[in-house]
Amino acid sequence: MPESAYQDIRKLHLFSNMADEHFQSLMRGAYVQNFPPQIELITEGEPSDFLHVVLSGSIDLFSQWNGRDTSMATVRPVSTFILAATINNAPYLMSARTLEKSRIVLVPSQDVRAIFDIDGNFARSIVTELAQCYRAVVKTQKDLKLRTSLERLANYLLRQQRRAGGGTVFDLEFEKRRLASVLGMTPENLSRAFKGLQPYGVTVSGTRITIGDQADLEKFAKPSPLIDDFST
Amino acid sequence: MPESAYQDIRKLHLFSNMADEHFQSLMRGAYVQNFPPQIELITEGEPSDFLHVVLSGSIDLFSQWNGRDTSMATVRPVSTFILAATINNAPYLMSARTLEKSRIVLVPSQDVRAIFDIDGNFARSIVTELAQCYRAVVKTQKDLKLRTSLERLANYLLRQQRRAGGGTVFDLEFEKRRLASVLGMTPENLSRAFKGLQPYGVTVSGTRITIGDQADLEKFAKPSPLIDDFST
DNA sequence: GCGAGCTCTTGACAAATATCAAGCAAAATG
DNA sequence: CATTTTGCTTGATATTTGTCAAGAGCTCGC
After folding, report:
1. Are residues A129 and A166 in the same domain?
2. Following CA atoms A83, A86, A90, A96 in sequence, which dihedral angle do they give, to the nearest 10 degrees?
């Protein structure tokens, strides 16, 4: 594995506080790979053999049941995914596929569990990471249960706007079909939802969004830090 | 705090592996209280001052936004709640209220964080607990996004049946109004959903459920361990 | 530069779900 | 024991959301 990748991984909260010796040990068994777009990296139900770390690109976590499927979350660099399954040595609950060309580190799960048992700092880092992941899912669930699809879209736009720097004009981060799935609706409905936000000053042109009247949209969306603020 | 309560708490996975000294230290700052039904123990948005442990009774975790509210989960003895907020020293994401007369232990959050920093075993236990909570929420989210309300009810009944011992006849664990909220629907719709399951052999009389044709209901519900098995 | 294959949009329609209002039944209360 | 309250159910209706089919607009590769 190239030295350069070491640095990026070491910088992750998850790995930044552990003993150097243990980090080296983890990395010895790990390997980096480049994947093309649309490759299914893991499949739900399978045993969790590797902890994954995204160095570049992006990953779609999704799930299927009875012929239906839904996007659960997007993983962006630099962060890990499927940490909970690795820790619990339990089967993956979600599948993962590359959205674009992606560079991924694969760390054998049993190595993670072994180091986790002997390195207190590493264990603490894992706790913090897991607690954050947990809180993120809780927020998503509140979003799903307490809001209509129009409200979910409005709040999503406000979040994405912030992530893009807060300007009036910004781009969607991925294709609308997937956005619809993330927000728990059909692509057709997403189209209509965008139209439904026009009265609040939202203009759409391809992937480009314009927030015409910030105050008006926020008055409708009623964003809450307890749902929309992913940093806390 | 009475000695008898110690034993119950000590038996929890979360506390069973830590050093006795640290456990004593945690308990010194903790106190036990009895609450009547329908008391709001914590409110979302407030700082997480205490880790809560339910010794008896049951707790409803719920959330509100824009005048609406929804039940997120039920906590039964003996287990903790609001662990993630305690660990991250972040505001509560959910409110909690007693459903019935309940006995609760309150452990100061800063004590938990302090012991967590010096006791590796405790830290590991917390990781396991958190990972389980995380996976539980992911399963709930899959249930919400991939299934219709009728399918959610059918699978809920199968889960509840199992929890109640697996017999053909069993009781609902709480009132229907709350069940509706847990399943993400209105009480009126829950009534209709029960009727919708009659063709599959489900009979309802008050809180008493009878599964007339197990195979038929399962064929419709299509339960999956990756959604409905809360042990993994 | 042009067609093939996409995604996205739109309209018409169907299904699912929510809302409102009323009535019923069981449980709590005096 | 009667009365009130509360939760549950039901029907009628409205709203939301999904489905199907068709067409518009893009992108990509040849």
Report:
1. no
2. 60
Note the Cα A64 to chain centre separation in Å. 17
Q: Where residue A41 sits, what CATH number does that domain have?
A: 2.60.120.10
The pLDDT of residue A1: 65
The reported pLDDT for the residue numbered A115 is: 95
Q: Which two tokens stand for residue A171?
A: 């781009």
Q: Is residue B40 located within the same domain as residue B60?
A: yes
**B177 pLDDT above the threshold of 90:** yes
Q: How many domains is chain A partitioned into structurally?
A: 2
Q: Domain range for residue A83?
A: 3-144
Give the residue from B119, B144, B169 where a domain finishes.
B144
Q: Average pLDDT by consecutive 10-residue portion of chain A (232 residues)?
A: 78 93 95 92 96 94 96 93 96 96 95 93 92 97 98 98 96 95 98 97 95 97 95 78
A1-12 per-position pLDDT tens digit: 667 778 888 999
Domain boundary among A118, A144, A170: A144
**CA B30 to CA A175: how far, in whole Å?**
51
- Confidence (pLDDT) at B230: 79
> Which CATH number is B174's domain given?
1.10.10.10
pLDDT in tens, A77-97: 989 999 999 999 999 999 999
Beta-bridge partner residues of A69:
A64
Extract the tokens encoding B77.
Answer: 């003895």
- The strand D neighbours among A residues 173-192, by Cβ under 7 Å, are 184-186, 188-189, 192
What does the pLDDT read at residue A201?
96
Based on the domain organization, do B93 and B175 belong to the same domain?
Answer: no
Question: Which residues on A lie below 8 Å from B72 (Cβ)?
Answer: 138, 141-142, 145
Q: Do B232 and A90 touch (CB under 8 A)?
A: yes
Angle at alpha carbon of residue A120, lines to A119 and A122, rounded to 5°: 70
Residue A231, min C-alpha distance to chain B (Å):
10
